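>> Question from a student workshop board

For tomorrow's exercise we were told to take the sequence and the ligand below, predict the bound structure, and bring the output to class. My setup keeps failing. Could a helper post the expected result so I can at least see what it should look like? The ligand is iron/sulfur cluster.
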Amino acid sequence: MVVIKEIETRSILTKSNLPVGDYSVNPYVGCTHACKYCYASFMKRFTNHAEPWGEFLDVKHWPEIKNPQKYCGKELFFGSVTDPYNPQEEIYQRTRALLKQLQGSGIKLSIQTKSDLVLRDIDLIKSFPDARVGFSINTLDEAFKDDMDKAVSIERRLAAMRELHDAGIRTTCFISPIFPGITDVSAIIDRVKEQCNLVWLENLNLRDGYKAVIMDYIAEKYPNLLPLYREIYTDGSRLYWETLDRIIRTCAEKSGLEYMWDDDSMEKPFDAPPVIVNFFYHEEIKKSAKKGGKTNA
Ligand code: SF4
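>> Workshop helper replied:
Here is what the output should look like for this input. Compare the format with yours to find the bug.
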């Protein structure tokens, strides 16, 4: 059972230092997709909820945004610590309300979701310049997906991605998190390459409470992979990721796709083949970029 509360917040736009947007927007606190590997579950510490992550949801209400035009040209990223199209959005419509408030402001919209509920707002989304919608897809195996999250099936996400792309909206396939030995990156790219503009790769990080959850899961369901997981997550080896990086680079070359560390997909024509962006170890990349370091491969 999900505990739902409606709350008042002072503001809905948060200045962001994420590489994906100037502002992050989270119309909810918590996320009922309840992914086992959720990086956002640290948010629970900042709530008064005793329920486990995935079993509570605060529905935000915020004051009217005065002069939304002042955000013109800025990129707003919807969904850094929640899914803006969690199933409760169907009832509360807070994401939809915000899109309506921002219509005509000239902001660049970037939405990240695991739900095809986003299709409800397709006309609204289309009215924003340079909008893009990303779907998290880290497997084509529905049984593994069901073990990991309570969101809609992979097939429904793929169908939604196709529909948005056919409607002229830029789409991203966010292959994240990549589970060593489980996520078949090449197969996913092959499946989505005709219906997305960007493929974004992120490795599985294991930290906090969910490290034990994932390691226990691997021990139970994929015991043959346990030595590999220990090598990566106990011994700190990067060999798996370095090898995967080389494999993807070769696949990309064979398929005529660009493979890089920086996302320039917005500069490409809509019907250009998707760009593949490697986001492995992005926290280090971010630090290095802040210091003026080079992030290109
Ligand atoms: S959809 Fe995203 S925010 Fe929601 S539980 Fe999954 S990883 Fe966390």
